[in-house]
Design brief:
about 110 residues; alpha+beta; four-stranded mixed beta sheet; two-stranded antiparallel sheet; 6 strands
């Protein structure tokens, strides 16, 4: 899911966005963009630990996992890791899991849900 944004200037600012997705995937992207407009997007961090993969959105949460803590809210994707591991995505009321899952899928295109 790669997007290319090109801005041209000739007295006016014209923006062109070209994406290689369509249909439901495009609608989902538009929904995510609108949901996170004006908000600080999470930092993507993967933590392989104890045969599982944790995907979190902040260094604070990564430190919690690395020190043996647990995610208070999460979405589990069983068998979604590159070697069949369970992947746990941090979740919250803002829907951070949607962004983290999207980025995970981009970083691991060969992994199928």
């Amino acid at each position: 899911m790669k997007c290319l944004a090109l801005a041209l200037s000739a007295g006016l600012m014209v923006s062109v966005v070209v994406c290689n997705y369509s249909g439901p995937e495009h609608a989902k992207q538009m929904e995510l963009d609108a949901k996170w407009a004006g908000k600080v997007k999470p930092t993507y961090i993967e933590i392989p630990k104890d045969g599982k993969i944790y995907v979190v959105g902040s260094q604070k949460t990564a430190d919690l996992i690395n020190s043996g803590g647990k995610l208070s809210q999460k979405v589990a994707a069983f068998g979604y890791g590159p070697n069949g591991e369970t992947v746990y995505f941090e979740a919250n009321k803002d829907g951070i899991e949607d962004l983290l899952m999207k980025e995970y899928a981009q970083k691991h295109p060969d992994v199928k849900a």
